[in-house]
Inverse folding.
């Protein structure tokens, strides 16, 4: 049997169904966003860990010129080394039909009679190599996909000066190339860089590496000291042209993966946490009010002998309905959308396995938080009603003491109509309530600002990076440093309008106990193309002997202008330089260190050489220019800036903006939910009063004017409040989204504010409309009888 | 007339509201005995403390000083929980403003009480006792004031309370309707022997009571025992 109290519960719920739907909806959205983004990031991290583990991703890596096989034994004996795999790797130029620009590639050996011990391959399609197979290669999936290759297709490569035709027998994924980054590239460009695996014996023969290797990967034992192993490995490899070894954190692909996950995680924390908080806030407010409107009924229930606990349960059941329905929708929706989003990321991260991981702790947290907020609001309001002696609770709230408003005291009230004065008094009588309503709407606005901000920031970053700072069209790099005269050759090519020398050298920078691996880029003191900017987009002068660091790098090394940084050059003779920092500059991507090229060459004792060139091109000549460039064997890489921009934008699109698009929808819906609720509450609290005014002879419009005037005032306060909060949220996120890969500039376009405000206003108008229909239907008689 | 005991006995109860400047002495020492089964009417000007007195003996409010005994038990010694059970089991209230739950039908409003009663009568029987069997499924907003008040009475008697406390039950009603309500109350008093205390402004009602207690300025000014209470239909308004 349904008790009378439970019937009351059901009918009360039915009576506020519009509001109920809005609250459930806001709560579900908060939970959904929370579960969605945490679920996706957790799944990605799990996918990565499983991948690395099953395919024996190395712990430490090193490259050298040519190391005799015998040295492998020495490496095995380093304390803490569990497994050693040696390989031959070689850079190559790939000729792809129908593509003007040259593509570069990396060839990596795999043992002929056994599986690799480390960095194993996941076969997606086709087969593995047969022992000693000479004309077959395994191709990395990214390149294959970018070009639409298939099994059996042939690729032409220049290996060590010889043209070879190799046929793709298998398509693979490697934990080392989750992102295939060409040496020195900022972003993966799958069309122009590919990774291939070849039989060890075939590759040895092709590049004259019999009995030797040039690449080592190590797996360490649990208790190994990574730094000790690295320095011991460096010592052993040094005589063989070894470059400084690096660990997973510095491994390019993993570094990139790590940065991406950090970004996702930060965003996954931010927006959903805010959504959830807004939802919780709203539920709290609504429940508090809902209970407050039932004060008299609570008094009556107490008077006739209902226990406090029974009354508490009655309202908690109401909360339960909201929490349970909201949670179920939120969780199911979050998991559903999360696995969808994960599938999208799966294509992008190139992990072989990825399954949605149910993060129960996250779900419990989200639901618990909402339940707590809802129960808390109910509880407080209920305590207030229940601690009153029942006789007191049942008295209708005493006619509120209307004081003269500030406006009246200031004698400026004559400028307001009678109705407007009612509105003002109402607001002044309940300032906290009015403020809370404004805060709720403000929150809705702020999450919109927050959601739109991403795109603004990205656009700004792109514009500065590629239009103001790096004005070159192409960045060429040579196989090895060449005399500066080589630039003259480039200058004479068709369409070339300007050329600037670049000398890039890999270094490890040290300051105090801090160190960071990056490269120093030598440029002309007063460049036109590759420019360095400060915060205000003004060019930073590179004085003779100047050495300037990007802000992030300076931060990592804890350096300020005037400090001396030690640079271990990781090339050739490996000099150690002591460089005083002359300036610090602003950069959104990467970890730049820049120096006057002449000074750099002097330090390196190399004479006037360049390792690359920044080139400005007349776009009409792209085709013939590329053809020319392809014929210069010494050019190993060519970065096309507009292409880079495209890639970066794609990257952002797939990554952040997708999630942001979801957030924008959520934010819009929450905004509407908050505003609709505010309107509904205002209406239900005052319906009796409004009905009385109607009885006294006010028209519908006049009554609506009082109600909406109050709401309009709330929205009016909410707009600046929301903009302010939104800015704060954005600043908070920018601060926490500060990774080595990139930093977001704190730029919010006026469009963004405009859009956010428009969405709020439209939501407000629509809510007004929905409530207006209720005003229209006020039952004058029933209202007088005290029916809510 | 069943006067075989005392239901309520109060000793010097006082009640003050507020403090300092706004201190109000609602009751200034009220000592009374109310015998079982009587129909008692409280009369007195507005603000004389009648409602305060009724609320205190009904366990809705605490006196500032003094004692209330319900069948020998001191209400002051009861915990909040015990007071709740006291109200639940022994006291029926009828309020001037009806205080029905707007989202429940007339019958359901009564069931609200029978759901938690110890030995309640069927809700329909209570509705019959107030003559509203044809309004069972109406919501309060669909009932007239008198009908609503009769539902409130049905709600109050459904638990078979020992006492029925009514604070100006006819205050908001016209005289004809008021008579219907009073008739229902007298009926209950006679049929079930429920001790009934009614606050009213209407001196005419005094004639139907076994006992009339006059309040003035927080004190009892006079108690009149009516040897021959009239029937409700015999009095004029
Ligand atoms: N909750 C309260 N707070 C302050 N004063 C009260 C309260 N309840 C009653 N009073 C005051 O106590 C006095 C007695 O009130 P009440 O018992 O309601 O009188 P009656 O019911 O006889 O009209 C009145 O002056 C009234 O204003
Ligand atoms: Mg009174």
């Amino acid at each position: 049997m349904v008790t009378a109290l439970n019937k009351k519960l059901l009918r009360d719920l039915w009576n506020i169904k519009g509001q109920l739907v809005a609250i459930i909806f806001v709560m579900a959205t908060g939970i959904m966003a929370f579960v969605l983004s945490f679920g996706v990031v957790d799944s990605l991290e799990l996918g990565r860990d499983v991948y690395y583990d099953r395919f024996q991703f190395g712990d430490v890596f090193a490259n050298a010129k040519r190391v005799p096989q015998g040295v492998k034994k020495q490496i095995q004996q380093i304390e803490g080394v569990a497994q050693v795999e040696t390989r031959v790797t070689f850079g190559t130029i790939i000729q792809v039909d129908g593509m003007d620009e040259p593509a570069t590639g990396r060839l990596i050996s795999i043992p002929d009679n056994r599986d690799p011990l480390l960095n194993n391959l996941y076969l997606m399609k086709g087969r593995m190599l047969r022992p000693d197979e000479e004309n077959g290669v395994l191709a990395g999936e990214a390149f294959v996909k970018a070009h639409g290759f298939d099994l059996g297709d042939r690729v032409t490569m220049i290996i060590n000066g010889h043209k070879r035709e190799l046929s793709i027998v298998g398509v693979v994924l490697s934990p080392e190339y989750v992102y295939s980054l060409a040496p020195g590239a900022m972003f993966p460009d799958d069309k122009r860089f590919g990774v291939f695996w070849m039989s060890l014996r075939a590759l040895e023969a092709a590049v004259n590496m019999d009995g030797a290797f040039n690449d080592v990967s190590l797996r360490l034992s649990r208790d190994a000291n990574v730094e000790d192993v690295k320095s011991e490995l460096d010592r052993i490899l040094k005589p063989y042209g070894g470059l400084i070894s690096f660990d997973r954190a510095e491994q390019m692909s993993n570094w990139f993966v790590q940065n991406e996950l950090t970004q996702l995680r930060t965003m996954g924390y931010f927006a959903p946490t805010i959504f959830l908080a807004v939802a919780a806030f709203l539920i709290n407010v609504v429940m508090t009010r809902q209970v407050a409107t039932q004060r008299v009924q609570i008094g009556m229930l107490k008077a006739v002998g209902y226990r406090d606990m029974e009354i508490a349960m009655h309202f908690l059941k109401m909360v339960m309905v909201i929490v349970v329905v909201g949670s179920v929708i939120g969780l199911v929706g979050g998991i559903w959308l999360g696995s969808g989003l994960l599938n999208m990321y799966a294509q992008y991260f190139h992990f072989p396995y990825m399954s949605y991981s149910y993060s129960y702790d996250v779900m419990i947290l989200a639901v618990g938080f909402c339940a707590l907020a809802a129960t808390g609001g109910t509880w407080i309001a209920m305590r207030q009603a229940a601690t009153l002696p029942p006789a007191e609770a049942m008295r209708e709230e005493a006619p509120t003491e209307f004081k003269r408003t500030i406006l009246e005291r200031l004698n400026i009230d004559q400028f307001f109509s009678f109705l407007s004065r009612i509105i003002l008094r109402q607001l002044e009588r309940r300032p906290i309530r009015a403020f809370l309503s404004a805060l709720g709407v403000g929150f809705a606005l702020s999450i919109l600002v927050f959601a739109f901000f991403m795109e603004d920031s990205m656009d700004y970053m792109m514009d500065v990076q590629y239009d103001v700072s790096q004005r070159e069209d192409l960045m060429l790099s040579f196989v090895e440093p060449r005399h500066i005269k080589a630039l003259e050759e480039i200058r004479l090519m068709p369409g070339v309008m300007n050329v600037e020398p670049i000398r890039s050298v890999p270094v490890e920078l040290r300051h105090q106990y801090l160190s960071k691996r990056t490269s120093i880029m030598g440029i002309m003191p007063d460049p036109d193309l590759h420019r360095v900017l400060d915060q205000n987009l003004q060019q930073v002068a590179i004085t003779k002997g100047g050495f300037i660091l990007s802000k992030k790098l300076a931060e990592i090394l804890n350096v300020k202008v005037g400090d001396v940084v030690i640079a271990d050059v990781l090339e050739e003779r490996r000099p150690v330089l002591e460089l005083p920092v002359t300036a610090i500059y602003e950069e959104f991507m990467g970890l730049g260190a820049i120096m006057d090229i002449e000074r750099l060459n002097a330090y390196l004792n190399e004479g006037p050489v360049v390792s690359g060139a920044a080139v400005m091109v007349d776009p009409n000549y792209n085709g013939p220019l590329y053809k020319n460039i392809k014929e210069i064997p010494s050019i190993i890489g060519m970065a096309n800036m507009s292409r880079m921009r495209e890639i970066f934008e794609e990257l952002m699109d797939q990554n952040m903006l997708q999630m942001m698009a979801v957030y924008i929808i959520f934010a819009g819906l929450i905004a509407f939910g908050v505003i609709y609720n505010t309107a509904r509450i205002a209406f239900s609290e005052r319906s009796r009063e409004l009905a009385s005014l109607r009885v006294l002879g006010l028209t519908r419009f006049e009554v609506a004017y009082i109600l909406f005037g109050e709401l309009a005032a709330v929205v009016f306060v909410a707009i600046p409040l929301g903009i302010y909060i939104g800015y704060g949220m954005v600043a908070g996120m920018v601060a926490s989204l500060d990774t080595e890969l990139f930093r977001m500039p704190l730029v919010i376009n006026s469009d963004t504010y405009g859009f956010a405000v428009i969405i709020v206003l439209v939501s407000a108008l629509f809510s007004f409309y929905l409530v207006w229909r209720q005003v229209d239907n006020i039952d004058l008689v029933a209202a007088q009888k005290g029916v809510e | 007339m069943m006067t075989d005991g005392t239901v309520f006995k109060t000793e010097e109860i006082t009640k003050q509201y507020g403090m300092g400047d706004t201190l109000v002495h609602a009751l200034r020492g009220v000592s009374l005995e109310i015998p079982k089964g009587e129909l008692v009417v409280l009369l007195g000007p507005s603000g004389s403390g009648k409602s305060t007195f009724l609320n205190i003996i009904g366990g809705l409010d605490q006196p500032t000083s003094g004692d209330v005994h319900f069948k020998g038990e001191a209400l002051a010694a009861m915990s909040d929980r015990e007071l709740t059970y006291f109200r639940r089991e022994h006291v029926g209230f009828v309020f001037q403003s009806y205080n029905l739950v707007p989202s429940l039908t007339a019958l359901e409003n009564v069931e609200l009480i029978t759901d938690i009663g110890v030995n309640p009568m069927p809700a329909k029987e209570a509705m019959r006792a107030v003559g509203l069997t044809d309004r069972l499924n109406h919501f309060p907003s669909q009932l007239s004031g008198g009908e609503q008040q009769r539902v409130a009475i049905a709600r109050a008697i459904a638990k078979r309370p020992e006492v029925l406390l009514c604070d100006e039950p006819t205050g908001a009603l016209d005289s004809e309707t008021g008579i219907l309500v009073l008739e229902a109350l007298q009926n209950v008093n006679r049929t079930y022997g429920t001790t009934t205390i009614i606050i009213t402004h209407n001196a005419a009602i005094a004639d139907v009571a076994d006992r009339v207690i006059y309040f003035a300025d927080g004190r009892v000014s006079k108690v009149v025992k009516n040897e021959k209470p009239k029937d409700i239909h015999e009095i004029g308004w």
